[in-house]
């Protein structure tokens, strides 16, 4: 029981914190369009892309650092630090919305990325508390927390935004998100116990986050799952970063209606990871789940490109389901596969590096997606999804090489490398 309690509390705190994240995502690209002011038309898509990727850029720089610190000092203090910064950043977002400041939106979003330590550290808690054969089910629990955040967050956000296309932006969603993160901090402070045992604590290594990334990708046993993950997340970023703009342009949805679309995304993610993935992963294995997930994303993204071009609402929703189900299959199983192929003493650091790989993809995906989409005056809403489908074809090809390498090769070689 003592080993499972941190896992449950980590799930609860991450789920509550991600409610705020689920509130923010549907609003960011729309608010960025409204706040651009005197920025030239030809640069507006690029500016929106920069805002959407700013979170991941900062997260990329700091996720390995948080992971290494959690290996050395424990999971609990890092989770508390991350949650502290999250609620401050969400409140800053509310103020930026109130004064309609684009540059302050950038500051708030970067702050949220800096404090996104809760995710990779929560994954490390899963690794601490689960046996290797149960790792995928544990990672799916964190994925379920994501799903809950993206399910309930949009419902909360919909209560506080306009139901007309020309309605004013509301600061209330930022305030609600901040309060939720503060509640998560209180719960973690009161109930989250340290999952890292004294035997697992280690002295810090002299190699940097960049050196760690270089050493990890040199291992064939990790290279193919990391590459599959990177390309798939990159492709998903093109979709995620432009979805709110597409629903406004193609479906003519208000801010409130747009929240309902993200509610459907979150509900699908929650049900898939909470029930289907947790049941199928032990039977099918991580590699097969990854391959089926990427294939489903590919089919859905190709359908989305065609549906947006033809403005078919029914096919847009069908394609949306295929994309999200595939994403739910792929993500926790990649993390579980990499975790099982890593030494137990450096779980936090390796998962932090995986988080950074994902962050690079989330930097490039939303940025390129919004550049391809174009400005509000000259949009090309189908183009990001077409490019995403091509990328997912590459990811699927790499996924068929996941059996290459030694299945359980230890990454304790970091110590032996002298780096």
Outline the low-pLDDT stretches.
203-207, 406-419
Main beta-sheet annotation? none
How far the N terminus sits from the C terminus, by CA atoms, comes to 38 Å
Order of helices and strands: HHHHHHHHHHHHHHHHH
Helicity level, as a percent range? Answer: over 70%
Number of strands: 0
Secondary structure category: mainly alpha
Overall morphology: globular
Helix tally equals 17
What integer is the average pLDDT? Answer: 84
Please state the CA-atom Rg, rounded to the nearest Å.
20 Å
The amount of beta strand, in percent, is under 5%
Write a short abstract of this structure.
The protein has 419 residues and is mostly helical. It has helices at residues 5-24, 28-34, 41-73, 75-99, 102-114, 117-129, 135-158, 172-191, 209-217, 220-240, 243-249, 255-284, 286-310, 313-340, 347-373, 383-399, 413-417.
Structural key phrases:
globular, 419 residues, mainly alpha
Structure description:
By secondary structure, the protein is an all-alpha fold. The protein is built from 17 helices and no strands. Helix 3 packs parallel to helix 6, helix 6 (117-129) crosses helix 15 and helix 12 (255-284) crosses helix 14.
Any chance you could write out the topology, listing elements then pairs?
Layout: H1 5-24, H2 28-34, H3 41-73, H4 75-99, H5 102-114, H6 117-129, H7 135-158, H8 172-191, H9 209-217, H10 220-240, H11 243-249, H12 255-284, H13 286-310, H14 313-340, H15 347-373, H16 383-399, H17 413-417
